[in-house]
Amino acid sequence: MNESRRSVLGALAGSAALLGGSGILPAAAAQAYPNRTVRLVVAWPPGSSTDTSARILAQKMGEALGQTFVVENRAGASGIIGAESVARSAPDGYTLLFNTSNQASNKLAFAKLPYDPITDFAPICRGYRNVLVLVAHPSLPARNFAEFLDYAKKSPGKLSFGSPGVGTPHQLAGELLKQVADIEIEHVPYKGGGPAAVDLISGQIPLAIASLVAVLPNIRSGQIRALAITEKARYAELPEVPTIAETFPGFDVSGWGGMFAPAGTPAPIVRTLNAEMARALRRGDVSQTMNGNGLVPWPSTPDELAQLVRDDIDRWTAVARSGVKFS
């Protein structure tokens, strides 16, 4: 090799080292990602809106990236068990988390978390906005929201409502409803929306605030009764069901789902995952499936998901200071 060629190759090698330090080369290296199975931890049980969405996205992302995305349900403690397992995993893009808005609200619901919801995760992409509904067992002598409010006021402390767990938007919606309507209803936390729905359908509990994805078939079959939507606007699939905001203006609570990686995951990998997840969410078949089950596709950038977590923490901190208890 002549001296001229050596000098050119040396310069290229030096440039490569410099580019690697600047974060440009890892993008090229990330083109090989993923080259093995990716594990997607869902912090909620099978049958929940989180699980349903994660499985749809895992299939589409796996097809696009040419690798299998395996969904692993690690439910319990309002999403903490699954989130902690991912926070402690290697930041290599092969262990991911699909979690709900509990990613933020758990910071208020629990005195101490085994991780920091902001600094211990690398946000990837929002998945959906989750439509919530107040539902009742048919044995409850209330055919609509107005009759429910009247019955609750005449029966203080005799009613209870189920939710997927402490700190979920479902529970927070119930606590806010108790506050604005001045009614007494006991909260019964479950390890996910599926178990809460089962107990509601069987009559073990009279009320629940549920994700539509978990109960829409049961509403349509008449097994349970929809009383009110917790978002500010009526849901197109159930146009006859009023919103709580129609009685109590300003009431607006919904949940969301999103994907996260452990903090320190290389930015090129995060960008790859974000691009494919956002692309999947914009597919017509995915959008149709989600909308039909009470979920609204809601893709975002990683920064937008990070901001959503921070905003939710701020919002529920203010709510807690007003006297609402997350327990």
Q: Summarize this, please?
A:
With 327 residues, this protein is of the alpha/beta class.
Commentary on this structure:
This protein is of the alpha/beta class and 327 residues long. The protein has 2 domains: 37-129 and 254-321, Bordetella uptake gene, domain 1 (D-Maltodextrin-Binding Protein, domain 2, 3-Layer(aba) Sandwich); 132-246, 3-Layer(aba) Sandwich (D-Maltodextrin-Binding Protein, domain 2), CATH 3.40.190.10. It has 12 helices and 11 strands. The chain has helices at residues 3-22, 25-29, 49-65, 80-87, 102-109, 145-154, 169-181, 193-201, 212-221, 267-281, 284-291, 302-321; strands spanning 38-42, 69-73, 95-100, 121-130, 132-136, 159-163, 185-189, 207-211, 225-229, 255-262, 295-297. The protein has a 6-stranded mixed sheet, with helices on both faces. It has a 5-stranded mixed sheet with strand order 7-6-8-5-9, with helices on both faces. Helix 5 (102-109) runs parallel beside helix 12. The longest helix is centred in the N-terminal third of the chain and has 20 residues, at 3-22. Mean pLDDT is 89; it is low at 1-29. It comes from Pigmentiphaga soli. Belongs to the UPF0065 (bug) family. This is Tripartite tricarboxylate transporter substrate binding protein. InterPro entries: BUG, Bug_dom1, TAT_signal.
